[in-house]
Amino acid sequence: MKVTVIALGYVGLANAVVLSERGFDVVAYDNDAAKIAELKKGKAPFDEAGLSVALYKNRKRISFTNDEKEAYTSSNVFFVAVDTPALPDGGSNLTHLNEVVSCVEKYVKEESFLVIRSTVPVGTNGKLSASVKSLSGARIHIVSNPEFLAEGRALLEERSPSRIVIGSNEKASRDLLRVLYRKAISSGVPYYEMDPASAEFVKYASNLFLALKISYVNELARLAEPLGADIGAVTLAMGADPRIGHSMTKAGVGYGGACLPKDGSALQREAKELGFRLSLVEDASLVNQTQPFFFYQKIVKRLGPLSNKKVAVLGLSFKAGTSDVRHTVADYFVKSLLKDGAEVRSYDPSAKARKAFSGLVAVSHKHIIASTLEAALTGADAILILTEDEAFASLDENKLLRAMSGRFIFDGRNLYDTRHFRYFDYVSVGRAEHKPR
Ligand SMILES: NC(=O)c1ccc[n+]([C@@H]2O[C@H](COP(=O)([O-])OP(=O)(O)OC[C@H]3O[C@@H](n4cnc5c(N)ncnc54)[C@H](O)[C@@H]3O)[C@@H](O)[C@H]2O)c1
């Protein structure tokens, strides 16, 4: 069977690859010509574990195209993964989804299925189903199939998802999706069919629960320090209760990325329109927005006046394992340091993340984006760790002593035991500061 994947970002490209691995012939379309040109050469447009190898292995079953007509006339099943960014009022910008719907209406000549993988406001499927109308008169079914993957693990999670959620009340759509997911269903992946609004809601409910967990621990971390408690010890013992668990309970400088921040504001916006206030979601978002500020105050307090201090900022993407810099906390920290007069050497192991970051914070004589870890560390008065990259979790103290001028490590991800470093002031989140012996 042939299927078309529309929009080849983090979600769409993982979808295209895994559909081809499951034996489907995939036409993969994006309206970004440069991205398609790279993909045609076999190059991954962003960093994602296993992506380059998977693109190579499946090259015979995926054809990449930038030709709109070819994309919309090559099959009657369209998986759609366009971005749905936040509008200034917090709502979701559905411009790209509407563009896709218009193309489907224009081109399809036979009964077709539009499977929405993008995160969209609850009720979008209902509205589209009521309004969609092909020029040819062919029936168009709208199916909700929210995506739950996490960047950095996109292919792994696409191959073995925690669950598959299908939102449709129609037999034809449900039957088709069961065929498309036959292999995953038979391997035991939980498979839930429900009405479209519930399926759309599952996505927000899941993401916002993750945001709540993270912000809950980060808020506790603020209190742990003055109380003399260690948030790492607290969450370790707390998470041993299977009702709580350990995932997403690590204190840090807050979450970023293209999903959690915007999904929180989108659902709040939708609730507000209906006269509700989602106070927990609101507070989780507020804790997250202020968490970097709390950590920054510790840097200012410990490092003193920042003017001309050299700070190596490690980790520019929003989390380890991805080159995505959307809503990265590094943006806030680097801009704040520069504003306060510091000299910043920022670094990320991903060359794509470094390039993307230069679009967020301009390079200048005060801000250099180093291409190696060593270059970032040389002459630094302090290190600021912002992601959990392996390279930052295994810093060699002797090398640091030789390379750096100062003796401060600010660890925004609690990667080390508080007593790990012998000769550095080690400052982390929700734990006692450790001074050199
Ligand atoms: N990134 C994640 O971790 C993740 C996880 C789950 C769900 N989601 C949701 O999935 C959706 C996609 O997210 P993403 O991070 O993959 O987006 P992205 O920004 O990485 O990619 C979006 C792609 O859509 C393309 N595009 C835009 N308009 C188009 C059009 N009219 N025709 C063809 N292509 C078009 C862009 O060129 C781009 O390549 C969003 O709704 C997001 O909330 C994302």
**CATH secondary-structure class of the largest domain:** Alpha Beta
**How many domains, as an integer?**
2
**Helix/strand/pairing category:** alpha/beta
Strand content: 5-15%
Strand order of the largest sheet: 3-2-1-4-5-6
Q: Number of helical runs?
A: 18
- By DSSP, the count of extended strands is 14
Distinct ligand kinds: nicotinamide-adenine-dinucleotide
Rough shape? Answer: globular
Assigned CATH superfamily of the largest domain: NAD(P)-binding Rossmann-like Domain
Largest sheet: 6 strands, parallel
Overall mean pLDDT stands at: 97
The low-confidence runs, each spanning 5 or more residues with pLDDT under 50, are none
> Distance between termini?
66 Å
Helix content: 40-55%
Cα gyration radius (Å)? 23 Å
Question: What would you say this structure looks like, in words?
Answer:
The chain is of the alpha/beta class and 437 residues long. It has two domains: 2-194, 3-Layer(aba) Sandwich (Rossmann fold); 195-437, 3-Layer(aba) Sandwich (Rossmann fold), CATH 3.40.50.720. Helix content is 43%, strand content 14%. It contains 18 helices and 14 strands. The chain has helices at 10-21, 33-40, 51-57, 68-73, 95-107, 124-131, 154-159, 171-180, 182-186, 196-227, 231-239, 260-273, 279-303, 329-339, 351-358, 373-377, 390-393, 397-403, and strands at residues 2-6, 25-29, 62-65, 77-80, 112-116, 140-144, 164-167, 191-194, 310-314, 343-347, 367-369, 382-385, 408-411, 425-427. The strands form three sheets. It has a six-stranded parallel sheet, with helices on both faces. It has a six-stranded parallel sheet with strand order 11-10-9-12-13-14. A two-stranded parallel ribbon has the order 7-8. Helix 10 crosses helix 12 (260-273) and helix 10 runs parallel beside helix 13 (279-303). The termini are far apart. The model has no long low-confidence stretch (mean pLDDT 97). The site of nicotinamide-adenine-dinucleotide has 26 residues, from helix 1 and helix 5.
